[in-house]
Amino acid sequence: MAVLITGIGELTTNDAELGKLRDAAVVIEGDEIAWAGSAADAPDADERIDVDGRAVLPGWVDSHTHLVFAGDRTAEFEARMAGKAYSAGGIAVTVDATRAASDEQLAANLRRHVDEAAKQGTTCLETKTGYGLNVEDEVRSARIAAEVADEVTFLGAHLVPPGADAESYVDLVCGDMLDAVAPLVRWADVFCETGAFDETQSGRVLKAARERGLGLRVHGNQLGEGPGVRLAVELGAASVDHCTYLSEADVEALAASDTVATLLPACDLSTRQPLAPARRLLDAGATVALASNANPGSSYTTSMAFCVTTAVLQMRMTIDEAVWSATAGGARALRRDDVGFVRPGARADLQVLEAPSATHLAYRPGVPLTAAVWRRGELLTSGFAGKR
């Protein structure tokens, strides 16, 4: 069945040919966009929905989350707000809780967070393992994630488990753990950071994953300048995430590569780190994505709109740059061209704002503006007041 969405006040397509359209319309057929253009030229369809001047844009593409977990780290957050520095070690608290949880509990928690994100406009979501840190629990985390998320990343190299020898653990990650998890995931990641894995260990993990046919991602340069960006670029990683502390060489390397710099502003705020240098990266010509980093320790939010708002108000990104980075930029970080765009052949992932333009995302900070969401052509938001 074809559905015509018309009366669009502003349509953000992220498509070079279509551009940003006023008084626009979109046709959804099945789970794909069949047509987009001026409302005056819209073809007939089986059903018509008039959004009455509201803005429409692609669904958010959240390319970095950690949502297969159990437990709570409120106490850690309170301590950090009282002045205690963030460190990688708090991950171990979530590992204990995740190992103790049942499959049903982990799956229910994941679905709750994915549904929460979808109601706020997120229509494509990546999530990682990394709270199991043994073969059994990494495998079940990957299996549960694969049932719910659009993209799954193996992050066995999240932290060396307490009491384990670092080199022996890296051997496990690169061997039996990777062999067991690889059939369930598309990507592999490593936390290349002080307190987690050094450059040599990180390189071993990434090269082993590449040999198994997995795409590469890197957590890098979160707590200070380090080898994460350089390693990601050298090995052709799709994305290096955090990028809070960058040298000029890091910025130049990213600008000269197709590795996406994925910025996680909600995490920077929660950990009281400086915000990542978005303007430096964009002005240098690097590709930038925005993601939530939704996780129980350092960024417990699924709101991509909050990340966009922060990027505009505090990171000197324009509205268009921030929206592109949270949609097409996230798609680029996942090496996808079927999401993050509104154009024929793209997946029918749309969000309607309770506002006439995307500018209102930053102009009205903190106000929930998602009026309706289509994901794979299905209208998720009940009670939408569009004219039919």
Automatic annotation (TrEMBL):
It is found in: Cytoplasm. It is an enzyme of class 3 (hydrolase). It catalyses: 4-imidazolone-5-propanoate + H2O = N-formimidoyl-L-glutamate. Residues 56-360 form the Amidohydrolase-related domain. Binds 1 zinc or iron ion per subunit. It comes from Amycolatopsis speibonae. Gene3D superfamilies: Metal-dependent hydrolases, Urease, subunit C, domain 1. This is Imidazolonepropionase. Fe(3+) binds at H64, H66, H219, N293. Catalyzes the hydrolytic cleavage of the carbon-nitrogen bond in imidazolone-5-propanoate to yield N-formimidoyl-L-glutamate. It is the third step in the universal histidine degradation pathway.
